[in-house]
Specification:
It is a single chain. By secondary structure, the chain is of the alpha+beta class. The protein folds into four domains: 1-79 and 188-227; 106-187, PAS domain (Beta-Lactamase), CATH 3.30.450; 253-338, Signal transduction histidine kinase, dimerisation/phosphotransfer (DHp) domain (Helix Hairpins), CATH 1.10.287.130; 346-501, Heat Shock Protein 90. It has eleven helices and twelve strands. The chain has helices spanning 5-24, 30-79, 81-88, 95-104, 140-147, 189-239, 253-302, 309-340, 353-370, 390-407, 469-479; strands at 111-116, 122-125, 152-158, 164-174, 177-187, 349-351, 374-379, 386-388, 413-420, 426-433, 483-488, 494-501. The strands form three sheets. It has a five-stranded antiparallel sheet with strand order 2-1-5-4-3, sandwiched between helices. Helix 9 (353-370) runs parallel beside helix 10 (390-407). The chain is rod-shaped and about 165 Å long. It starts with a helix and ends with a strand. Bound molecules: adenosine-5'-triphosphate and magnesium ion. Residues 399, 403-404, 407, 433, 435-436, 438, 446, 451-453, 456, 465-471, 494 line the site of adenosine-5'-triphosphate. Residues 399, 402-403, 465, 469 line the site of magnesium ion.
C-alpha cells in the first residue's frame, strides 16, 4: 500500500496502453488475442481489487485493534477508580494499582499501561522508569481524552525503536469528576502481520483465478481457432485444384455453419466445373465431326475427285450440309449461353401462343404429310396471352414439334395441344407423339446439352441433331418463369409439356 494514488493511476494507465497495443498488433492469432484479453481483464480486476480490498483489510485490522483496546481501557478505568482515590488519600501505595492492572491484563501481556494524574504527571506505569509528564508531543492521546466529549483519545506513532504502537487514553472518573487518566499502548505489528497474511492469501487466490481465466481463454480460442485452421487448410487445397476437399464441421454454431456453407460451396463448384468440362468436351467433339467430314471431302476434291463431276457435286453438297450444321450448332450454342446468362429478348410483351402454335403447325404441315404422319393441333379458345419474347416462345414450340415429327414413324400421329395449365395462371403446351418413346435411363437426361438418346435414331431421311434443341427449349421456358417436363414409355410414344406463366 506504499504506492501513492497518482503512481497507481499512472501504473494502471501504462499497463492498459501496453495491453491495448498487444491486441492491435496485426497478424496476432485468435489464440493470443483471446488469452491476452482474458489476462488483461482479470489482471486489471485483480489490481483494482487489491487496491480496494487491501486498503479495507488493513483498515479493518486497525479498527478492530482500536475497538478491543477501547473496551479494555474502559473496563480497566472502572476498576482503578477506587484505588486512585485511595492512593490520593495516601491509604495505599501506587504499586497497588500496578498489581491490579497487571492482573487485569494477564491475558494481554503485550499491553503497556500508564496512569496519569489530571495534571499530566504519571502516577504509575507497567514498566519502570515512569514516562515523562504528558505533553502534546509525547502523549497527545492523553490531552485528547481530557478535551474530548467521550473522554477518549487515540494516536498511532512509532517508539524510539521504530516500532509502531497504538495508544488509547481514557479518563478515570468519580461520578463527573475526573480523577486520573489511564493510557494503554499496544504494538501494532502482530495485528498488521495477520492482516498482511490475509491480504497475501487473497492475492494468491486472485492469481490462481487469473491463471484459470487465461486457461479458459486459451481453450476457448483453441476451440475457435482449430476449425478455422481446418477451413483455411481446405481452402488452400481447393486453391491448388483439389475440388473434392470437404471439412468435418465442428466448433461453435457460427463456425459450424461456415463449414457447412464451405462444403456446399465446394460441392457446387465441383459440379459446375465438371459440367463445364463435360460441356467443352462435348462441344469440341460435336464440332470436330463435321469439320473432319469437310476436311476429308476437301482433300478428296483436291486429290482428283474434281475430275469426276458427279462425285465432285456430291462432295460439295456434303460440305455445304456440314457447314450448315456447323453454323446451326454454333448459333444454338451462342443462343443457349446468352439465354443462360439471362441476356437477349429485349422487353417482354404479351404473346398470343395460339397464333404462334398455328404458324408453327403450318410450317410443319407439309413435312408431316410427306412423312405420312397425322399432325393435329388443338387449341382451347380464349387463352390469355403469355408475357414473354415471341421469337423465343416460337422456338420452344418449333423444337418440340420438330423432335416429335423426327421420331414419329409413318402412319403415326403427332399432336400439339394448347390449354390452361393445372395452375390457372399458366398456359400449358403439350406435344405428343406415337413414336418409339424414350427409355427410362435416357429420359432424365434428354434436356442436357448435347444429349442424344442413341437408341432413337431419327427416321430415315432425317438429319442427326446435335442434342441442343431440348436444352434450348427448357432454358427458354425457365427464363420465362415456367416449367418443362417429359413423360414417356418405350414403345408408347412421348409427351413433352411446358407450363408458361400468364403474367
Ligand atoms: N419426341 C421424341 N421421341 C423420342 N425421342 C426423343 C424425342 N424428342 C427428343 N428425343 C430424344 O432426346 C434427344 C435430345 O433431343 P434434342 O431435341 O435436344 O436434340 P436433337 O433433336 O437430337 O438435336 P437438335 O434438336 O439439336 O437438332 C434426341 O436426340 C432424342 O434421342
Ligand atoms: Mg431436337
Amino acid at each position: 500500500m506504499g504506492i501513492a494514488l497518482q503512481d497507481q493511476k499512472n501504473f494502471l494507465y501504462d499497463a492498459f496502453t501496453r495491453l491495448k497495443s498487444l491486441f492491435r498488433k496485426p497478424g496476432s492469432t485468435l489464440n493470443s488475442q483471446l488469452v491476452f484479453s482474458h489476462l488483461a481483464v482479470s489482471l486489471v480486476s485483480i489490481i483494482l481489487m487489491a487496491i480496494f480490498t487491501g486498503r479495507y483489510i488493513f483498515q479493518a485490522a486497525n479498527f478492530e485493534l482500536e475497538h478491543n483496546l477501547q473496551d479494555l481501557a474502559f473496563t480497566a478505568s472502572n476498576a482503578i477508580e477506587l484505588p486512585i482515590q485511595e492512593v490520593k488519600e495516601g491509604r495505599v501505595q501506587p504499586t497497588f494499582i500496578r498489581e491490579l492492572l497487571t492482573r487485569l491484563f494477564a491475558d494481554n501481556a503485550n499491553i503497556h499501561f500508564t496512569v496519569y494524574n489530571v495534571d499530566g504527571r504519571p502516577i504509575i506505569a507497567s514498566e519502570e522508569p515512569l514516562p515523562p509528564r504528558a505533553t502534546l508531543e509525547n502523549a497527545p492521546e492523553v490531552l485528547q481524552a481530557l478535551q474530548s466529549d467521550i473522554g477518549r483519545g487515540v494516536s498511532v506513532r512509532r517508539d524510539e525503536h521504530g516500532d509502531r504502537y497504538m495508544y488509547m487514553a481514557v479518563l478515570v472518573q468519580k461520578e463527573i469528576e475526573v480523577i486520573g487518566i489511564l493510557r494503554l499502548a499496544v504494538a501494532m505489528a502482530p495485528s498488521l502481520e495477520s492482516a498482511r497474511q490475509s491480504f497475501l492469501v487473497m492475492l494468491m487466490v486472485a492469481l490462481l483465478i487469473v491463471v484459470g481465466v487465461s486457461l479458459a481463454g486459451w481453450f476457448l480460442a483453441n476451440n475457435l481457432a482449430r476449425p478455422i485452421q481446418v477451413l483455411t487448410q481446405a481452402a488452400g487445397q481447393m486453391e491448388h485444384g483439389d475440388l473434392g476437399v470437404r471439412v468435418k464441421p465442428s466448433g461453435p454454431q457460427e463456425i459450424l455453419r461456415l463449414a457447412e456453407a464451405f462444403n456446399s460451396m465446394a460441392s457446387r463448384l465441383q459440379s459446375n466445373v465438371n459440367e463445364l468440362r463435360a460441356f467443352v468436351a462435348n462441344a469440341s467433339h460435336e464440332l470436330r465431326t463435321p469439320l473432319t467430314t469437310i476436311k476429308l471431302r476437301a482433300e478428296a476434291l483436291s486429290g482428283g475427285a474434281m475430275e469426276e463431276p458427279e462425285v465432285a457435286k456430291r462432295f460439295l453438297k456434303e460440305i455445304d450440309t456440314e457447314i450448315d450444321r456447323l453454323v446451326r450448332m454454333v448459333n444454338d450454342l451462342l443462343d443457349l449461353s446468352r439465354m443462360e446468362a439471362g441476356l437477349g429478348g429485349g422487353t417482354k410483351a404479351p404473346v398470343d401462343l395460339s397464333a404462334i402454335a398455328n404458324e408453327v403447325y403450318e410450317t410443319f404441315e407439309i413435312r408431316a404429310a410427306y412423312g405420312q404422319v397425322d399432325l393435329r393441333i388443338e387449341i382451347e379458345p380464349d387463352l390469355p396471352p403469355v408475357m414473354g419474347y415471341e421469337d423465343q416462345l416460337r422456338r420452344v414450340i418449333y423444337n418440340l414439334l420438330e423432335n416429335a415429327l423426327k421420331y414419329t414413324p409413318p402412319e403415326g400421329q403427332t399432336e400439339m395441344l394448347l390449354r390452361r395449365g393445372p395452375n390457372p395462371n399458366t398456359v400449358r403446351l403439350l406435344v405428343r407423339d406415337t413414336g418409339p418413346g424414350i427409355s427410362p435411363e435416357h429420359l432424365p437426361h434428354v434436356f442436357e446439352r448435347f444429349y442424344r438418346a442413341e437408341t432413337n435414331p431419327p427416321r430415315p431421311g432425317q438429319a442427326r441433331g446435335s442434342g441442343l434443341g431440348l436444352a434450348i427449349a427448357k432454358s427458354i421456358v425457365e427464363g420465362h418463369g415456367g416449367e418443362m417436363g417429359v413423360s414417356s414409355q418405350l414403345g408408347n410414344g412421348t409427351t413433352f409439356w411446358a407450363d408458361l406463366p400468364v403474367n
